[in-house]
Each structure stands twice: as structure tokens, then as C-alpha cells.
Amino acid sequence: MVAGRGPVIAVQEAAGWAVRYSGYDSGTDSGVELPPGARVPMTVDTPFDLASLTKLFTSVAVVQQIERGTLDLDAPVCVQLPEFRAVARHGVTVRQLLTHTSGLRPELPLYDCPDDPARLAMLRAEAPTGPAGQYRYSDLNMLLLQLLLERITGRPLDVLVHEGITRPLGMRATRFGPCPGAAATEDQRRPWAKADRGMLRGVVHDENAWALGGVAGHAGLFSTGRDLAVFCRALLAGGQYGPARILGPDLTQLLLTPPGLGFAVDQRWFMGELAGRGAAGHTGFTGTSLVLDPATDTFLVLLANTVHPRRREPDSTPRARAATHLGRAIRRIPAAD
């Protein structure tokens, strides 16, 4: 966990194990624990599979192109991706993809496709199944945004994120996998998972991101609490961290203003009492979350490997509780004279 206000890191702590289990025993419904000497303790420098926190970086990369004038927020996606005829027929826009209002379903089984051409064909054939303008969270939105970015820039997403975000901000521990030394995730096997890959460590947990080679608009990044603190501080400061600027203040505000572009806004289920005044952030399936509170210039980063040794029913109670504790602590700080 890392929490801070303005340029100050107030809390930076690590607890538990980065690697505790060698696998999962379905017969006993429990993890197979490693001997104590073989376990790997968590540290403040442990990298984590960020899962859907990757979407925030994809969103920033998209808004960077909007700022540069190479992309129009309200342009139909088919302007740049005419071969995606199913989406074109519905006039899906960049804004709808960023706000999860395109009507696309949550995901597709790309992990079951035999090769990349088959995966691309499946994406091209997918049409919205819900009403446009209605919120429906979907990984497919971010996959289309990835393809859009790569089409207009001629560069892959991992390069765009590195050159446009992590390198200028000095986020040296943030990158797409593989990431040796990362916290372990899941003993990924059917029927609880969608692929049979065994115990995962340092490779992306999300099955579709794995099928796409580890670099995807919705998942695939690894990072540390310290690096994400830099990301948070840059966004809270209007897109600037030290001498580096990744976005202008107006576009940064657009990212974080309701309904948010890629960022969720005022979601009490994981933001606790930080919600209600314009707090923005996101969660990740592996156990990660990030909350920015512009009203108090405060941020909270929680990184956990809650899917180790296997996924369970999601529970954001600890996320909300931590955010509430932070919110209450801020209210107790005397105002500056």
C-alpha cells in the first residue's frame, strides 16, 4: 500500500507473501503451501500484475493523441478502423469506448482462438449487443482503443506507454510482461479459469491478454506501488511530475471528470468515503486498485495478489475500508493557515 498527499508519501508498507503457494488442491479447496524457506516475502518494491489498471494507461495514451490532434474524441471508430464493419454500423465513437457506453459485451473468448488472424477476425465481427450510451463495462472497448492507437501512430501499445508515460515520469518498474520477480497470481486451470497454464508468476494473468502476447489495452502491465504513486501525483498535478509533462491540465481534468475517460468516478464500492467529491480511479481483477482524490490532492494505491493460489468471488471491502480510513485521516488534518 502507498498513500500520499501532494508531493508527500505518507504511508508505504508491504505485508504478506509475494509467493506462498506452489499450486491449488481442488480436492481440499486450499493452496499447497511452499516450505517457509521457499516462500517469497512481499516488499515495497515487489511488482504486481496490474490487470485492469492497465486501462488507465491506455486511456492516457488515447487522450495524448486527442491533445495532439491526431484523434477526435467524438469521431466514429470506423474513420480509422474501417474494416471493423460491425462496430461501424452502430457508429461507435472514441468517447463511447473510453466511457464504456459502446454497447459491446464484456469480453470474447480470444483465448480459444487458434491464432492472431482468428482473434482479429472475431473482434472485427463483434457488434454491440447493448444500447449505445448505456454503461456496460467491457474489455473490448480497450482492445479497440489499442488497435486505434496502433493504427494512427504506427507503434505498438507497449512502446506508446513507455515513450509517452512511463519513461518521461521515470517509472522504471512499470512495463508489460514478462516481469521476473513479480508477485505470483493464480494456479490457472479449468474449470475455475479459462485456460490451463499452471501457477503464474511474472506473466500476465488475464487469459485474453495472454492470448494476445501479453500486451493488451485492457491488461498486461506490471508495476510497483512507488511507480504508481508517481503516476497518481502526475495526474493530480494536472499531468505534470517534476519537469515531465504527459498531458495538459485541461485534458487531465477531462480524464478525471464525470463520467471519466477510462477512469471510474465516485464509486463508493471501492473508494469508500473518498467517493462523493470527484474521486477517480480503477480496480484490477488480481487485487489491485488506485484512487485519486483531487479535492484533497490525495491518492491511494493498493496492490495485492488476491488470486493466489486461485481466483475467488471478488470482494472490494478491504479496498473501500482503506480508502475510508484515508479519507477520515485527511479530515482530521488541520487546515493550513
Give the CATH topology: Beta-lactamase
Global Rg: 20 Å
Q: How many domains make up the 3D coordinates?
A: 1
Strand segment count: 17
* Helix/strand class: alpha+beta
| DSSP summary: helix tally | 11
Summarize the structure.
The chain contains 11 helices and 17 strands. It is of the alpha+beta class. The chain has a single domain, classed as Beta-lactamase.
Could you describe the 3D structure shown?
With 337 residues, the protein is an alpha+beta fold. The chain has helices at residues 54-68, 85-88, 94-98, 116-125, 139-153, 157-169, 207-211, 225-236, 249-256, 268-271, 317-332, and strands spanning 2-5, 8-12, 17-19, 21-25, 30-33, 40-41, 48-49, 175-176, 184-188, 198-201, 221-223, 240-241, 244-245, 264-265, 280-284, 288-293, 298-302. It has one domain: DD-peptidase/beta-lactamase superfamily (Beta-lactamase, 3-Layer(aba) Sandwich). The protein is 32% helix and 18% strand. Strands 2-1-17-16-15-14 form a six-stranded antiparallel sheet, with helices on both faces. A three-stranded antiparallel sheet has the order 7-11-8. A two-stranded antiparallel sheet has the order 3-6. A hairpin with a 4-residue loop joins strand 4 (21-25) and strand 5 (30-33). The radius of gyration is 20 Å and the shape is globular. The mean pLDDT is 96.
